[in-house]
Amino acid sequence: MSGGMNAPMVGTLARLTRPRVLVIAEAANPEWVSVPLVGWSLANALRDVADVHIVTQIRNRDAIRRAGLVEGVDFTAINSEALAAPLWRLAKHLRMGEGRGYTMVQAVGAMAYPWFEHLVWRKFGARIRAGEFDIVHRITPLTPTVPSPIAAKCRRAGVPFVIGPLNGGVPWPRGFEAARLREREWLSYFRGAHRLLPYRAATLGAEAVIVGSRHTESEMPPGARCHYMPENGVDPALYPARARRARGSLRACFIGRMVPYKGPDMLLEAAEPLVREGWLQIEMIGDGPMLRDLRWRWEGSGVRFRGWLDHAGVRAIASGCDLLAFPSIREFGGGAVLEAMALGLAPLVVDYAGPGELVGPGLGYKVPIGRRSEIVDRFRAALSTLVEDRAGVAAVGAAARAHVLAEFSWPAKAARVAEIYAEVLERSMEQRA
């Protein structure tokens, strides 16, 4: 073929721009929240930049069907319930309370996950070895404490393995030991034991490790090929522009579980004088073990408790606010912060972990981490300033919205992952040459 590229070269270049990717997302569900929603959103967005086949756990099958994907063509559901179901029941028992004991749930999940990947390899191993996929990408679990047995098998098959975004393990700040114990997080004292798990070296020796936070990046072994990309994103279609309120008291909202480390009590204590004087109104969105006592003490003319709301309900209430007031002291990702910014709310957060990374200069307000009394005082001081600067709060909210829609939409994240894929495949080609 004179003056042009031969067919194998054309095929190779095509796979660089639109690779064939087996996406492993054990938790991927468009109708749930937190990790399953992240798993689904990123996996689905990648279908626009790659030829993707999603592999997930069977509990997500019906929701993915309802989202319009075709089983056997677009995705495969793996039935690992023989082990996953009894271990999940064990985790619910050991966590000692709904919404608590997150580390315990992760630890029990780590016991079940290798069986899931064993079944994935049984289903797809021959196809991976035959070269039907250019990349295998594990999206969930998001935690870096759960290794992937498939990583080493992919390497032996000559197929690049990509993992992430990984996030988690943010240390509990000093002064919050009581909150840690109330969260039933006693197992977090032994989190470092995950470094002894089999397959860890092969997993983190992946061709690309996408990290969702700087803390997780700092925990990666020397030589890990890290790419920083916070795991949360937004669907721009769900966050239309809204009119700004020019008059009245400042309206703030809190979005999250009513648990100690999220700090709903700290917010209400900090805001009490401003609420009492009519300068500030607060919408408390979320459910949890603290809700009953908080409602008994604080609900009144300036504070409303909305309880648990679905995605649309949260957006409907939050879109009528000016500010997200969120004094959480231990957020891995900060999805609520990102979604509030997408609505045009200015965020007020503690400068620690996920929220501290998401809220850059000019995009919100941050107070330093400290002990409980210090965070309350700092939030009170910040709120006292903001209630007198409505125009400034609106301008910051507008900047936050523009930033999130440009950098944190799921299409933008998929484009970033596509760049990582291209880098991985180019390096793979060079190594084979």
Description:
This protein has 17 helices and 13 strands. The chain is α/β, with parallel strands linked by helices and 433 residues long. 45% of the residues lie in helices and 15% in strands. It has helices spanning 7-17, 34-45, 61-66, 81-94, 102-129, 150-157, 177-182, 200-204, 214-219, 264-276, 291-298, 311-318, 335-342, 353-358, 372-386, 390-407, 410-432; strands at residues 20-25, 51-57, 75-78, 135-140, 161-166, 208-211, 226-228, 250-255, 280-285, 303-307, 323-326, 346-351, 365-368. The strands form two sheets. It has a seven-stranded parallel sheet with strand order 3-2-1-4-5-6-7, with helices on both faces. α4 packs antiparallel against α5 (102-129), α5 (102-129) packs parallel to α6 (150-157) and α13 (335-342) crosses α16 (390-407). The longest helix is centred in the first third of the chain and has 28 residues, at 102-129. The protein folds into two domains: 7-233 and 409-432, Rossmann fold (3-Layer(aba) Sandwich); 236-407, Glycogen Phosphorylase B (Rossmann fold, 3-Layer(aba) Sandwich).
Itemize the secondary structure elements and their pairings.
Blueprint: H1 7-17, E1 20-25, H2 34-45, E2 51-57, H3 61-66, E3 75-78, H4 81-94, H5 102-129, E4 135-140, H6 150-157, E5 161-166, H7 177-182, H8 200-204, E6 208-211, H9 214-219, E7 226-228, E8 250-255, H10 264-276, E9 280-285, H11 291-298, E10 303-307, H12 311-318, E11 323-326, H13 335-342, E12 346-351, H14 353-358, E13 365-368, H15 372-386, H16 390-407, H17 410-432
Parallel strand pairs: 1-2, 1-4, 2-3, 4-5, 5-6, 6-7, 8-9, 8-11, 9-10, 11-12, 12-13
